[in-house]
Amino acid sequence: MTLADVLAGVIFVSLNAYALLGGADFGGGVWGLLARGPRKQPQRDLIAHAIGPVWEANHVWLILAVVLLFTCFPPAFARLGILLHIPLSLVLIGIVLRGSAFTFWRYGGETDAEQRHWGVTFAVASLITPVLLGVTVGAVASGSVSGARAPDTVFFAVYVAPWLTPFALSVGVFALVAFAFLAAVYLTLEAAEPELREDFRRRALGAGVALFGAALLALVLSGSAAPRVRAGLIFAPWAVPLHLLTGAAAVAALAALWRRRYRVARVAAAAQVSLILWGWGISQYPYLLPPDLTVVAAAAPDVTLRLVLGGLALGAAVLFPSLYYLFRIFKGRSQPSAIGRQ
Amino acid sequence: MSDLLAARSQMGVSLAFHIIFAVVGIAMPVMMVVAERRWQVTGHAIYLDLAKRWAKGTAILFAVGAVSGTVLSFELGLLWPEFMRFAGPIIGMPFSLEGFAFFTEAIFLGIYLYGWDRIPQRAHLAAGGIVALSGAASGVFVVIANAWMNAPAGFELAQGQPVHIDPIAAMANPAALPQAVHMTLAAYAATGFAVAGIHALLLLKDPANAFHRRALAIALIVGAPAAVLQPISGDVSARHLARHQPVKLAAAEALFETRAGAPLTLGGWPDVDRRETSFAIQVPYALSLLAFHDPGAVVKGLDAAPRDEWPNVPAVHFAFQLMVALGTYLALVGLWAGWRAWRGADLAHDRWLLRAIALATPMGFIAVEAGWMVTELGRQPWVIYGVLKTADAVTPMPGLIVPFLTFTLLYCFLGVTVGWLLYRQILRSPEIPEWRGFYMPVDGRGRVKGEG
Questions:
Q1: Angle separating helix axes A3-17 and A55-72, nearest 10 degrees
Q2: Which residues of A touch B154 (CB under 8 A)?
Q3: CB-based contact B89:A300 (threshold 8 Å)
Q4: Shortest distance, CA A206 to any CA of chain B (angstroms)
Q5: SS3 for A30?
């Protein structure tokens, strides 16, 4: 295993953390949009309450992945920037609107109409951004972000065709459903009232079943669109154990939800989504951008990689205790009230 | 509009937008922590209200800063893929470190904003302190990366490609320290004076308001010392430019000819074709004196570079003059306020000083924008000075005017919204009648609290 492999792995871990944490914040926005029934407002309040203290920290996982990518694998970053300019720009607009609308919603609304306005902007941005993120992943997995391109081809063929495919869109839908699933599972643990918890349990069960459908759709479409990933996912020696593990996690998540074992469900759901991500990552290894750019070929010189790794170790020494503190305060089992105040 | 110009405009708009939020994100946490500390010491609720208002302001501005910073990190690849291909391995390191500083800032801001009732007072204050420190650190890391573009170091060129890369030497480039100090001071001066100016204006209308009086004092504590130190840092930066980026200094000073005993050109309109500056005031020997601390020193002019490697001279000259003029004003007002405070005067009763401070409200931010125009426009046509031209770094994608207009509209909309929210949430006077009295109300134990 080379140094470049280690750093590619770190980037993937960072993306995985973004999917589990930042992804769930997007999923929360989706449930805000779909809030209905007698507890519509309490549902939305719970979502805002859950996202508020952590969404900015969760968002940094994406930034970390991006800066590590352009430091350690600059040719890959340059190629993504050129060929996926349009979907990535749309992702950015989604990220800007989601983050600012959430903040304006929490700090800005004096009237109900204004509150609703920002709440809706937040929710719609939360719906669209995951689809576009998934589309970019689908485009990479399908090998259409390729270095070979004729200089005289038309705009559509170079800048739109690589990502506007049924397969890439199916990955976008999959990402959306996965984020919504994670959010609903996490929210069962955030809710204090049993009725609210039941609301999100039902949503989690529904999203969990929908996730099977979305995964199946993506797998079927991968046949012609992403042959390398598909071949990896079916024929590689690690494929069967991985599928067994993923399937076990998925069944465990649904079973735990059914039996109202929410902590188990949270672990299982996070494991399920992570395993699917790693399945994608391992199946396209050693390629960073299939079909032609490998991890090693895209890597920066060793001196840079070594320094970044050192920086990562230092950063992690600061980051993990801080993150632990953040989540202990806001996501801990018992939330102490009014220590040292008043 | 050419694609190159559209890409440069989009990057410029994104930076100009983000820098405001980045600057406030560095300085406002300091004010919020000072106010909270005053509250813990004096027990007076005015300080708590101030700390909470500034925390709200930080929350709104940090959120917009975080997402607009994300846009910039992607835009490096979306607009300048060839630049990143070249520069990533050399100068990615400070960006990675900035990632962690930003992480720390986001985590502890979350703890600060939502943790008022959940953690002990001391931990809460410490969380605010960490937000302030990590905010300054992330600013410094990003400025180090920008400084490298101005004074590239830490690699050698072989057939146009970087070899013998040394990321540590790249971070220790000669522009890093002067730029980092100048930008950090600018952040405190701009934010401090913006907040002080608004409260000074409100004090002029409502002179007996205790709330605005305390806010003014804390904002000046943050802004005035930085504004007074800034000219010294500016002098260091100018001397750095004279040695390492002579073309930028020549453009800023509208100096067309290399000469000994160069004069300082104040104002005027540089005519690039005739190579002279009309309507300007010339101070003999002053530029040589400022640039090298020697009235006879030779200062390189624009003629030291080929004509096609000149930046937009009138724009750089104008931006530079604007920055220096505004910075000088802030420094003088800072000195005036400091002198009055040192003599024991009550600043909130000095109406002329209040007027001067109120006038300064937008100046720091305009100076920050002008300063970035000097450093970025002044480096053109290079994206990495002397190494890579901006035109060779841009993406091959056509139609870049579309994303440029889209992001410009988005940022205009966000800017207006944020301005409105800040006015409503932070600046409007609190509706507590007893705080409208000039002196602090008496607390339960019968003594006057909260002087300071």
A1: 160
A2: none
A3: yes
A4: 31
A5: helix
For A93, the enclosing helix (H) or strand (E) is helix A85-108
Closest partner CB to B89 (pick from A53, A74, A311) = A74
- Chain B positions touching A333 (Cβ under 8 A) are none
Query: Are B119 and A300 a contacting pair at CB < 8 A?
Result: no
pLDDT above 80 for B443: no
Which residue out of A59, A61, A63, A98 would a mutagenesis test of the B interface target, given it has the greatest number of B Cβ atoms within 10 Å?
Answer: A63
| Cβ pair A339:B119 closer than 8 A | yes
- State residue A72's pLDDT score: 93
> What is the model's pTM?
0.90
Q: What is the pLDDT along chain A (342 residues), one digit of tens a residue?
A: 799 999 999 999 999 999 999 999 999 989 988 888 888 888 888 888 888 888 888 888 999 999 999 999 999 999 999 999 999 999 999 999 988 888 888 776 566 677 778 888 888 999 999 999 999 999 998 888 887 665 667 888 888 888 898 999 999 999 999 999 999 999 999 888 888 899 999 999 999 999 999 988 988 888 777 777 777 777 778 888 888 898 899 999 999 999 999 999 999 999 999 999 998 888 888 888 888 888 888 889 999 999 999 999 998 998 899 989 988 888 775 443 333 332
Which of the residues B98, B100, B130, B163 would you substitute to probe the A interface, choosing the one with the greatest number of A C-beta atoms within 10 Å?
Answer: B100
Cβ separation B99–A63 shorter than 8 A? yes
In this complex, which of A75, A89, A340 lies closest to B121 when CB atoms are compared? Answer: A340
Which residue of B64, B118, B388 to mutate against A (max A Cβ within 10 Å)?
Answer: B118
User: Cis omega before residue A286 (within 30°)?
Assistant: yes
* Residue entry with tokens 């104008």: B318
B335 has pLDDT over 70: yes
Q: Could B84 and A78 be called an inter-chain contact, meaning their C-beta atoms sit closer than 8 Å?
A: yes
Rounded Cα–Cα distance for residues B123 and A153 (Å): 60
Residue B95 distance to chain A (closest CA, Å): 6
- Of A218, A204, A303, A186, the C-alpha closest to A250 is A204
pLDDT of B348 > 90? The answer is no
Chain A residues with beta carbon closer than 8 angstroms to that of B421: 104, 107-108
Option in B102, B111, B396 nearest A60 (CB): B102
Contact call for A341 and B74, based on CB within 8 A: no
Using H for helix, E for strand and C for coil, what is the string for chain B?
CCHHHHHHHHHHHHHHHHHHHHHHHHHHHHHHHHHHHHHHHHCCHHHHHHHHHHHHHHHHHHHHHHHHHHHHHHHHHHHCHHHHHHHHHHHHHHHHHHHHHHHHHHHHHHHHHHCCCCCCHHHHHHHHHHHHHHHHHHHHHHHHHHHHHHCCCCCEEECCEEECCCHHHHHCCCCHHHHHHHHHHHHHHHHHHHHHHHHHHHHHHCCCCHHHHHHHHHHHHHHHHHHHHHHHHHHHHHHHHHHHCHHHHHHHHCCCCCEECCCEEECCEEECCCCEEECCEEECCHHHHHHHCCCCCEECCHHHCCHHHCCCHHHHHHHHHHHHHHHHHHHHHHHHHHHHHHCCCCHHHCHHHHHHHHHCCCHHHHHHHHHHHHHHHCCCCEEECCCEEHHHHCCCCCCCHHHHHHHHHHHHHHHHHHHHHHHHHHHCCCCCHHHHCCCCCECCCCCECCCC
pLDDT at B444: 38
Sign of CA dihedral B227, B228, B231, B234: negative
| Shortest distance, CA B404 to any CA of chain A (angstroms) | 11
Instruction: Note the pLDDT tens digit of each residue in B410-435.
Output: 999 989 988 888 777 666 666 666 66
CA dist., res. B74 & res. B173, Å (int)? 24
